[in-house]
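Narrative progress, year one. The postdoctoral researcher (J.K.) led the effort to move from monomer predictions toward full complexes, under supervision of the PI. The following entry was the first complex the group processed end to end, covering 650 residues in total.
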Amino acid sequence: MIEIKDLHKSYKMGSNSLHVLKGLNFSIGEGELVAIMGSSGSGKSTLLNILGMLDEADSGEYTLDGVPIKNLNETKAAQYRNKFLGFIFQSFNLINYKNAAENVALPLYYQKVPRKERQEKALKYLDQVGLKEWAHHLPSELSGGQKQRVAIARAMAAEPKVLLADELTGALDSKTSYEIMDLIQTINDQGNTILVVTHEEDIAHMCKRIVHLKDGIIEKDEKVKQVRASAYV
Amino acid sequence: MFNRDRWKEILEVLTKNMFRTILTAFGVIWGIFILILLLAAGKGLENGIKQDFSGVATNTMFMWTQTTTMAYDGLPEGRQYSFKLSDVQLIRDNVPGLRIISPRNAARGSADNVFYKTESGSYRIFGDYPEILNQNSIYVNYGRFMNHNDIQKKRKVAVIGDGIRQDLFEDDEEVLGAYLRIQGVNFMVVGTYKEKSSNGNGQNAERQIYVPFTAFSQAFNRADNVGWMAITAEDGQSISNKVDDIVSTVKQSRRIHPDDERAVGFFDLYQQYNRVESLFAAMRWIAIIVGTLVLISGIIGVSNIMLIVVKERTNEIGIRRALGESPWSIKLQVLMESITLTLLSGMVGIVIGALTIYGINALLDNVGPVDMFLNPSVSLTIVLSAMLVLIVSGLLAGFIPANSAIKVRPIEALRTE
C-alpha cells in the first residue's frame, strides 16, 4: 500500500541545514497496523507529514497504492489527500463551529458528494464510533475522547486507503487512550490500513508492527504480538 | 459555487464576531451612503436650477435695442433706435434654420398704469405674438391665450398673470370679459396665465400682461417699431452659431456700425444652458470621485478584517486542506465572504441613503419649495453601477486575504493553534 525508497528530507534553519530523514526504506501492506516510534527529534512527524502529502521529500520515492507521489501541485495534493488519506491528529483538529456530523461530512463535501448522502454517511460513521446521539453537538460540548472519536469518524468518512494518526492519544488520559486504541484495532480488524505515530510504548504495542526511528534512520523494524486494548478497558 | 453549505459557512463566519462584522460593514455603508447622498444632492440642485429653464425653449436667444456707441453712416453715436417689423422678415431671409421669431414691445408704468374698478397696479405690458407661448415658461390656466385672429384684427384683448387677478379681482369674481384700463386704453381679459416653475421669481413673473402685438402698437403709438425679440432655432441647430448672423443683419438694417458691440443687446440662453449643463456634469464627477474615495476607505476596512479572519482561521484552513479541500475552493470561500460582506453592507447603505433622500423629499414637500433645490434623487443606473462597484471592490478586498490564506503551507497551518 505504502512504499518508500531512500527518502531524504532536511530543513534549512538559517545558514544551517538540519538533515532529518536520512534515507528511509520501508513498505506497508494492506490491512497492516503499524506504529512508528521514536523520541522527539527522531523525524517521525516529518515522515508522517511526507506520507500525508503535507510536506515534500527532498529526494527518494514514495508510492501510495501504486500511484507515485511526486511533484504535486497543491490542487492535486489536496485531491490525493482527500481520496487516499484520513488524518487523525493529536489535537483532534475539529472545526469548532461545525457540529460533529458536519465535521465528519467535511471530506465528503470536498468529494462533492450530495448533501443527503453526506449526512447519511456521516451518521453511519458516527454510529460506528458510538457517537450517533452526539451528532448535533459542537466539539466544545464533547470530551477529549469523544472529540478523537469524531476525528476518527471523519478520517474514515471518505473511505481512504490509509489512516494516518499523529500521536492520537497524546492529549488523552490512559483509560481514554485505550478506548481509542480499541476503536483503532476494531477498524483495523475490518481491513483498514493504519499508521500510528507515537512515542508511547504501550500504544505502540497495540499495533502489529513497530518501526523504530532514531536520528532519521530506521533503527529497528519488528513485527510484534498485538496487545488487545479491550483487555484494559 | 452557490450551494447551501458554502452560504451556510459564509453566514457562520460573518456572524461569529457580529460586532466586528457590523463595524466593518459600517465603513462600506458609510461610503455608499455618502456617495448616494452626494449624487442626490447634486441632482437636487440640478433639478432646482433646471426648473428655471423648464418649458422655455432653451435653444433661444433674446435681443433688444440699446444706445449706439459709434457714429456710422452719417448718424451720430449715442443714438436711440428701434428694430422694425421688417427686420423680422429680414432675419428670416438672411439666417436659415430659425423656428420662431417673436417680436415684442413692452411698456412699464412707473406709476399705476392698470386700473380695474377701484383697484389699480403697476404692471409690465407686453405686446406679443402667440408664438411667445412656446418660448416662455408660462401656461394658460384659465380662459385662452391670444391668437392670430387677435393679431390680424388688432383686438384689444389681454392675458393677465394670476398674480394680477389676485391683486385686482375679488376671489370669486369672474375675470373673463372684464375690462382693464391699461395706460388709458381698455382691454378685455380673455385668460390668465401661470409660471411653469413655481419657485424663486414666480410671484413677480405672474404680474405681467400679454396683449396682441398689433393692438399694442396701435394703442400705444409704436408704429412698426419693435423693442425686443425672442428667436428660437430649429431643433438640432444651435442658436449660438446664429447669434452673430442675426445681430449683424439687424445692425445693417438699422444702420449701426458693424463694430459697435453695445448697440444691440442680446442674451444667448442656449449658451447659458450649456454652461449650466457642464457645471452639473462636473459636479456629478466630483460627487462620484469623493464618494468613491470614501467608499475605498470602507473597502480597505473589509480587506483588513478579512486578513484578520484568515489569520484567525489559519489552523482551520490547515485542517481543511489536510482533509482535501482544494486551494481554489478556500480562495473562493474567502472571496465570497468578502463580496458578501461588501455587497450586503452596500445594500444597507443604499437603502439608508434612499430612505434619507425620501425623508428629505418629504420634508421639502412639507415646507414648500426651496430656492434652487428640487426633488433630490439618484437614478437606477447609478444604484446598479454602485452595486457593480461593490462586487468588484469586494473581490479586490478579498483578493489579498484569499491569497494569503492559501500561501500558508498546510503543515504550517496545522501547527498554528
